[in-house]
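Narrative of activities, Objective 1.

The group set out to show that a structural description can be obtained from nothing but a protein's sequence at a throughput compatible with the screening campaign. Below is one input-output pair from the validation batch, recorded exactly as produced.
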Amino acid sequence: MRASLLLTGLAAVLVKIAAAQDSHPDCKNGPLSTNKICDPSANTVDRAEALISLFTVEEKLNQTGHIAPGVPRLGLPPYNWWQEALHGVASGHGITFSPKGEFSHATSFPQPILMGAAFDDELINAVATVVGTEGRAFNNANRGGLDFWTPNINGFKDPRWGRGQEVPSEDVFHLTSYVSSLIDGLQGGSDQKYKRVVATCKHFAGYDMENWNGNERYQFDAQISMQDLAEYYMPAFKACVKADVGAFMCAYNAVNGVPSCSNEYLIEDVLRGHWGWTNNQQWVVSDCDAIQNVFLPHAYKPTRAEAVAASLKSGVDLNCGTYFQLYLPDAYKQGLITDDDVDQALVRLYSSLIQLGYFDPDEDQPYRSLGWKDVNTEEGQLLAYQAAVEGITLLKNDGTLPIDIKGKTVAVFGDWANATTQMQGNYAGIAPYLISPLMAAENITTTNFVKGGDVAKIIDAAEKSDVIVYVSGIDNSDEDESLDRGNTGWAYAELDIIERLSEQGKPMIIVQMGGGQIDETPFKNSPNINAILWAGYPGQSGGTAIFDIITGIVAPAGRLPITQYPAEYVSQVPMTEMALRPSGRSPGRTYKWYNGEPVYPFAYGLHYTSFNASLPKANASTPNSLNKRYNIADLVKSCNSSSSPRTFIEDCPFTTVNVDIENTGAIASDYVTLLFLGGKFGPKPYPNKSLVAYKRAHNITAGATKSVALNLTLGSLARVDKNGNMVLYPGDYSLMVDIESKLTINFSLHGGQAILDKWPQPKNVDKADPPNWIELKYFAAGYGSEGVIEHN
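Output recorded for this entry:
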């Protein structure tokens, strides 16, 4: 849906080409063939500048929207910069699926929140490699571009957030590890001549609210302290920089009075200046219509021309939407922007396409050979199943699971019992198949299924069954982009049905679906409910994964990537509260700072077996070099004198902790080793604990032991002060294995504190002065408003 859209001749053309993706430029016989842009041996920037030098001013400005019309007279085809691939190549925008046959579908993986529960970075890299490969195959078939606006890497700190399903975790370290692996897989590694595709880290920064009590994301001003900004809201984006991500997306919201997409402090001072994200092929795109939102509702600048000029000069290179294309001409005429401003943005964009091989001969690059044969492969299908299995998390089990259901009648009830597209969540593509829980159960044994909520029929079917599996929760009608939840409890009607089913005296299993957690207290405390699984949005093989775990074909080893709070938590803290630490306004955010009792804590997850953790005896192959006492000055000096200088001193190795994980039970299983850091050091208040390392060990058989290596850096030990500086502090430190520590290692740091990263402070800047009127028609459902307010 679109609100009143202001169309010019240019905009009308853009609408026509929005869904199309033309072929690559003809560098053999076309008008550009003699231009340096078509010379693969030339410098990337020289090539981009040679192309741009041929453009008129009007042609330059036309290319600044996500639907770039190209330059027909030069043989430069249109290009759509907007593709999505959150958990597989997604429908719409720049991607065109065929109605049947080749390119009619793509592998549909679980949502990131469930893949995050796997705590398996190698898995994430493998998934991203498949997604990037399929995305490139679509491009080779002229069915999509090469730039994918993924990952969403904002932290899931509030359980009501509608887009929490799109992110892997509430924890900063987990986010950074996940995104590093994902970007490497999508783009094909940073040491290659060509990128497979370009990934885009979003939403920069402080974005984790859609619409809460009338607070719209388009107008929200996130008030964030320097401490919280540096400690929580920015590290995942810094990890994107370290992974050499090709693009960033700035967010709808303002941060401390300045809209993110005209925030020079965030984009130029921190991202490009402090972090050094300055390669010429790296660019920033606005969220869709976020440039328009700079004008209204943020009211950061008095005119549209000044709003677009502020965004361009603050470092935004591309506008998802049409505001740049519509109003940069006015800004140019008024002298608010220069040729250099525009050229800089275009050099970045076209340098990125050069790095993707967009202008180069097919025979010179490895990715041009990818095609339909590389989409929905058997390996991809197995990986989609593995990703679902690894993430599904066992929250309760009285010994009922695993259960043999062959020869028994299984009742499968709940809103998700026969779910298909529900299992994909948002930003999904067309899957090759979707296996519902009911379909999976039917492949094993006899089932009873009742569609809808007819209680009498449900109870009757349950009485005729041997086992009851209730599959329900929340879906995109409850949580989605533009849709935050109002509460986190189960619906009363469902609680009533589940209670009546549990009184049947039969094995009763609850499978909670959806991205956000629901308070499971009634089921956790009920002796009549035997087991609880959380299965998120498990993708194309979700039903099979669920029942393979229920029946013991595979053993669960997922861990909750978010805290499950009691339902009353949402009445204790407003979504607009950005502070992490507990205060009079909040009991604290995330497991690090929450001072209440969670229903299930972050990283909780049961197994079908038991495990023990111990330190191996030191030897040449598994040395544990952790001492009892360290001098801070010596640690920093050792890093600075390293033969391999590091851009970021916090990445200097501190030590490796080797842990032996023994399966002391009878069932083979994976195990996620989690290493937390605790102690009273640095500024008060102290966090409850902090995740600093994790590793998933696969298929530890009964009685066997596997050793895992957990690498720590100087940054693992650091805290952040009130100014945002990352600091090593003297004090007593404890490393703890697992959420209820199976093993604790103590050591201390002494000497004077040392700053590892001095956080840049914002300059005095103009702040937005939002108007007290906003037309209701301005806000439309979907990805951005795409509306134009007629007021000036």
